[in-house]
Amino acid sequence: MENDVSTMLKRKFTGFFSRVRKSRSAMVCICALFLTAFVLISMAFISPEAVQAAEGGAKSALPWWAWPLILFAVTFFLGIVAVLGGVGGGVLFVPIVGGFFPFHLDFVRGAGLLVALAGALAAGPGLLKKGLADLRLALPTAVIASACAVVGAMIGLALPTNVVQISLGATILGIVLIMLLAKKSEYPEVKQACALSTALRINGIYHEASSGQTINWHVHRTAQGLATFVVIGVMAGMFGLGAGWANVPVLNLMMGAPLKVSVATSKFLLSITDTSAAWIYVNNGAVLPMIVVPSIIGIMLGSIVGVRILAKTKPAAVRYIVIVMLIFAGGRALLKGLGI
Amino acid sequence: MAQKMKATEEQLAYAHLLDIGMKIGLIALIITFVIYMIGILPPHVPVSDLPKYWGLSVHSYLEQTGIHPGWAWLGMLNKGDFLNFTGIAFLAAVTLLCYVRIIPILFRNKDTVYGIIAIAEVIVLALAASGLLKSGGH
Fold first, then answer.
1. What residues are paired with A204 via a beta bridge?
2. Any domain includes B125
3. pTM for the whole thing?
4. Residues A48-52, mean pLDDT to the nearest whole number
5. Under an 8 A CB cutoff, do B3 and A102 touch?
6. What pLDDT, on the 0 to 100 scale, is given for residue A7?
7. Looking at the domain assignment, is residue B67 inside a domain?
8. Contact between chains at A103 and B94 (C-beta distance less than 8 A)
9. Does a structural domain hold residue B42?
10. How far is the C-alpha of A172 from the C-alpha of A177, rounded, in Å?
11. Which of A27, A236, A338, B50 could be stapled to A243 by a disulfide with Cβ–Cβ 3.0 to 4.6 Å?
């Protein structure tokens, strides 16, 4: 299903693709290059001393322009890894940039929301036009999630930074557990639609070309699902993470929507949830263009290259690289929050 | 792969507007950032001073730079850094516009419940965008 979302992105940027070399070996070289660059940057520049020096306005050994440039390179890499690993950019962006760059977590979360928002806005039109994302499924969940994301954003900006850091670290490690343990169901069995979903007419017809099947889908446990979006919304707003990691299991496993519909609707849902939270960060001054714009451009260009690689190969191992990166970043956030 | 299914009228209307808005927003974001980087308009906070501020909490940052939160940036569009907020705000406003677009369609199709849900969403987004909701700071 991630492939379908990625395909939407791919079509959005067909013009760019023509400029990307087609051979697989070139792609592998690009990946290797950026992986190497990422490691070197981490080792050479983003040392604890450099970060510490730059935090709080102390004089950094690096010129001012180096950090946005490194940010661009790292987000480009994250864009590739996010597509290959089947995760949203926001969930990688906040813990990694928050943990290894000198930017305050307030600005990182604001940028994280805008990064996730830009990705969701880019994918949304294609997913809706194709009918993969379902507006009837998204609208009730979005109104709850976005209202709660506003609350989450306000809480996040009001809490002491170390409390947010600790909570962020714990959340990231929780996401790793979800990624490792949560099962996915292509077509969950929904014996009977619940009364609420029937009243809201949340259902659809799904044609699976690979099997030639036409699947009538409907959902159950709608009230429980909607209640869960209260928590998801608050966490999305508080940490600026996006929330695809939570949306998909709830839509798919709890409510019983088919996996492809769940992933596509989740991606579209982010464009609404993150919008409301992003406004809170914008209006409270927690958005620095020097952090936001290189990040958005970097992660979107990285996604384009990632989609290109994904079209040729399906590297399952990348998912484990993502998990390791999240464990590392989550652990770092936890330690930073604890002052260790 | 899924060939999928028929998208409803409101879904297509939403998608069409989202597509246009997203493209305009991203182009605006890139153009204004280029203007900022080239220095066509002088920034409120010099770029070379940014490392003094980006490690501060937002509360301290606003205090030290004398920036007023909320929609005050509209009055500072002659500054290179604040010009970037046109693209950012546009991207953040696209969803609101899409909802406004589908409300008449929902009511015309007598889909009253979803019409009300869409109105509720517009209220949530408008409230978030209004700048009325202030965070306590830390």
1. A217
2. yes
3. 0.84
4. 49
5. no
6. 58
7. yes
8. no
9. yes
10. 9
11. A236
- What is the residue range of B16's domain? 9-130
- Of the candidates B16, B91, B117, which has its C-beta nearest A117's C-beta? B91
* Contact across the interface for B1 and A122, Cβ inside 8 Å: no
Three-state SS at A103: coil
Query: Is residue B61 in a domain?
Result: yes
Q: Which of A54, A207, A292 is nearest residue B55 as measured by Cβ atoms? A: A54
A interface mutation test: which of B26, B54, B106 has the most A CBs within 10 A? B54
Quick one: A332 exposed, middle or buried, by C-beta within 10 A (0-12, 13-18, 19+)?
Answer: buried
- Which DSSP string corresponds to A234-295? HHHHHHT--SHHHHHHIIIIIS---HHHHHHHHHHHHHHHHHHHHHHHHHTT---HHHHHHH
* Residue A16: pLDDT over 90: no
Q: In this predicted complex, what is the ipTM?
A: 0.93
Select from B21, B128, B134 the Cβ nearest to the Cβ of A279: B128
Q: Which residues of A touch B124 (CB under 8 A)?
A: 143, 146-147, 150, 276
Q: Which of A16-25, A157-166, A321-330 shows the highest mean pLDDT? A: A157-166
Per mean pLDDT, which range of A23-37, A276-290, A307-321, B46-60 is the poorest?
A23-37
The stretches in chain B having pLDDT less than 70 are: 1-6, 135-138
* Residue A326, CA distances (Å) to A63, B24, B39 in order: 29, 33, 37
Helix (H, G, I), strand (E, B) or coil at B77: coil
Copy the structure tokens of residue A220: 């159950």
Q: Which run of H or of E encompasses A45?
A: none
Domain count along chain B: 1
- Tell me what the mean pLDDT of segment A117-143 comes to: 90
Please report which helix (H) or strand (E) contains residue B69, including its range: none
